């Protein structure tokens, strides 16, 4: 088991997003198991030919998404994803529901907005 990342410099997708997406996909699929130690920011940047800030940005996004956990000197590890992802999704959904209600949307209109946003996000 090892991290397999390919950055396409010609892609319209930013390198940090390519990295974030590939790590997240590998973590979700189990190719990178819980507890897998990620390379250092500088090490991975050198390996991929990217700026350290680009890798750091991807790591920050992955940590915010609950995909990785940073443990200081003990390194950055793949986090247990199920609970974190579900918890984050529930928090986001609750926040959206409260905001939609404050805006005066009924449930049908709020759900229609969610369906449209999901369609746009998942139908690349």
From TrEMBL:
Q: Which species is this record about?
A: Streptantibioticus cattleyicolor (strain ATCC 35852 / DSM 46488 / JCM 4925 / NBRC 14057 / NRRL 8057) (Streptomyces cattleya)
Descriptive protein name: GntR-family transcriptional regulator
Query: Which part of the chain is the HTH gntR-type domain?
Result: 13-81
Q: Which Gene3D superfamilies match?
A: Winged helix-like DNA-binding domain superfamily/Winged helix DNA-binding domain (1.10.10.10)
Q: Which InterPro entries match?
A: Tscrpt_reg_HTH_GntR, WH-like_DNA-bd_sf, WH_DNA-bd_sf
Q: Give the UniProt keywords, A-Z.
A: DNA-binding, Transcription, Transcription regulation
SMART domains per UniProt: HTH_GNTR
Report a single Gene Ontology molecular function. Answer: DNA-binding transcription factor activity
Is Transcription regulation among the key words of this record?
Answer: yes
Q: Which PANTHER family match?
A: HTH-TYPE TRANSCRIPTIONAL REPRESSOR YTRA
């Amino acid at each position: 088991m090892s991290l397999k990342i390919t950055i396409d410099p010609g892609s319209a997708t930013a390198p940090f997003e390519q990295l974030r997406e590939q790590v997240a996909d590998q973590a979700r699929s189990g190719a990178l198991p819980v507890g897998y130690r990620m390379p250092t920011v500088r090490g991975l940047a050198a390996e991929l030919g990217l700026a350290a800030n680009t890798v750091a940005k991807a790591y920050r996004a992955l940590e915010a998404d609950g995909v990785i956990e940073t443990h200081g000197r003990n390194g950055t590890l793949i986090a247990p994803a199920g609970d974190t992802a579900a918890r984050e999704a529930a928090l986001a959904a609750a926040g959206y529901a409260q905001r939609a209600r404050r805006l005066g949307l009924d449930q049908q209109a709020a759900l229609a907005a969610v369906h449209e946003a999901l369609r746009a996000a998942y139908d690349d």
